Input
Amino acid sequence: MAHPFAITLDPGSSLANRTGSWRSIRPEYVHRLPPCNDACPAGEDIQGWLAKAEAGDYEGAWRALTVNNPLPAIMGRVCYHPCENACNRKAIDASVGINSVERFLGDLALEKGWAFDKPAEETGKKVLVIGAGPSGLSAAYHLRRFGHAVTIREAGPLPGGMMRFGIPKYRLPRDVLDGEVARIVAMGVEIVYDAKVDDILAAMREGGFDAAFLAVGAHIAKRAYIPAGEAAKVLDAVQVLRSMEGEDKPLLGRRVVVYGGGNTAIDVARTAKRLGAEEALIVYRRTRDHMPAHDFEVEEALEEGVMMKWLSTIKNVEAGSITVEKMALDDKGFPQPTGEIETLEADSVVLALGQDVDLSLLEGVPGLEIQKGVVQVGPDMMTGAPGIFAGGDMVPSERTVTVGVGHGKQAARHIDAWLRGETWDPGPRHELAGFDKLNPWYYGEAPATVRPVLEIARRTSTFEEVVQGLDETNALFEARRCLSCGNCFECDNCYGVCPDNAVKKLGPGRGFEFDYEYCKGCGVCAQECPCGAIAMVPEEK
Amino acid sequence: MAEFTPESAGPDDAQKLRYYQKGTFTVGNRLVDADARTVQASEERSNALTCGHRACQGCGEALGARYALDAAMRATNGKLIAVNATGCLEVFTTPYPETSWQLPWMHSLFGNAAAVATGVAAALRVKGKKEVRVVAQGGDGGTTDIGFQCLSGMFERNDDVLYICYDNEGYMNTGVQRSSATPPAARTATTPAAGDEPGNVFGTGKFVPRIAVAHRIPYVATATVADLHDLERKVAKAMSIRGARYLQIDVPCPLGWGAASHDTIRLARLAVETGFYPIFEAEHGKVTRVRKIRKPRPVTDYLRLQKRFAHLFRDGHEDPRVTRLQAMCDANIEEYGLVGDDETSG
Output
């Protein structure tokens, strides 16, 4: 080819120059563990389902959520949402309202009648679940998904366990509870009511069960010895909350004293207010910051006019009055008596001092270990007796609905593996996507959406639900506040900021790919990734 | 319940969603309309400056040039000619016989890019090709020092050229020498960190965007590789106007500034957020809009990431001239009104 004057070579493209050979470190797309997922006792992939909700795919979001937790409408009301405490967004403005979006999805699923898929095939194995509380229901759901035949035996007349007999209606309306249980039953889970199990080994033998999951909860109220006159009215919290579900509501009188500082004490005091008590007084031996009750519940109770008496113990109960002694905290924060005595008017005293587990069904089971009134289980949720697993309030744990649901899921996975003669290995956890992994500059300021709350007058006179739900607009808004920590949300930053065009865009939902032929390893993509989904790793020699 | 999506949302909702959702400031976002994403988010972007170029790792200029030219290519439907001054950008893209440019591209001398572009624009006018547009581009050396006479002439004649200056604050290609755009106290090969007042002097240098404004040309703007939405909007606006236009983009240079290659955009962002590099636009001699600072930061955050300022913090002592640099930033913030409620910025 003839060239112009002084030109000897054909023009070429710089594409011939493979600048990837300059690189000593390379970017890689990674998945890091979002703090919300890390904190969730039920092991939900929160970031994953929020990502679907953000795109308006609510059914997809609900289906992704229920892979791990079958009770979103209940969770969206009663979960203490440790996810929100862990949320990275709180360092920017306020945590994402994960719990409110979960409730929105749960309620939408009930409204639309979305159902769970039945298992593709039956395994022929039979599993007995004892107790239809959160842990038992969760285990049954997951076992059913694996294709096992599941029977739940429940001692009471209705499902839900403490969700029904412990959590008041104003926090969890019963139609929501019934709706979510019905969906699990529709998968083919059998629930037998009023069928208390007295002997677990016999029950398994008679029914021909291959494995059992125990989740009987902790329903026996702890008592404390308090001298009481004959006419004195002393009740326990479990009894009071349980009778709220029956025809005869408890008679507590005009002035009700609740003894204890946990969430149950708060529930009883708020229930007493709604039953018409003029005064509901919580007596607690330590101070507010030592109360085991969650702060927002204490706040809501105070708003409703529940009174609190800190640093006091009940010495004596008589008809119409109680005697309390003032306490003082010592150096170690323990309450010590001061000798200062006070008399208060009280028509009834409700003890909310914690609950014990009814372990009678386990008598005679070889290998079982019980410590401090609860059943010991291994990391696989199995008791010392082969094939007998346990979870929820009856094993050592924080006693919440969500922890129970998490136990149910874990146990189901281990039971499924055990039935196949295998062990289930969850694999290593991804590296945590802490705030230091993010580039928060890219996130716009967006204050959290506050759920509407029922006005005080209606709260103290009715059992209507106190905290209302979000509507679709603000649920979507809230979902979109998610930072997508540790997982690519296809913002195109890496694709845009590469000075060498060395990022390939693969199209919606498929993410990106590095072109290592040209990537020089500058690291701008990793630095400018808002959500920490790119890691720089040394090149192998 | 009606589906509620960004597409179906009303104007108020869309505003709210766009502003509040994550990634409002990112290059793109799968949830917003394609129109609301940047040109760089598109698989259809022209990649006017393609792979295989020999710029250093993390080069801000390579990034800035692709950002600006891709936006200009979209604005002109690909009918664009670029004229390049001598400098890094010319050298690293066109080692004979290779080229990284995927548009008609010319290089003549260090100092005459504006004049050559004027000539190209004149030729197109004569040939009746009104739709073909001309961009001239160069570094700060080729613009504020060597090419300044040609540039001023192009402004003064109001020639139909968009001149883009990629400002990396020195002659990086030839070994990091000082230019008239080098900031005070910065160490370069010709302003070493030695003597009583190490680094570049205070009180000299020139800020060409203001000189361009003084020419009362139709459009002048500054931009940064740290805010792509703003940069692309300015290029599109510039291409919608006929006559002389000037755009100056802050493009950090990892080599010349002594910074980590991954900090290029971070440095550009800090230059804006500290008030060190005011981002504004002006039309016909008047400043019409400024980009407000989102999260104000002290100038030391910017300085400490760069070895060219390391002598200001030597042995744990802070050089008193840091206060002067902070005062410079404060003066910018005051002069342009960079802090406050943002109703106008893009």
In short: The CA atoms of residues 140 and 167 of chain B lie 5 Å apart.
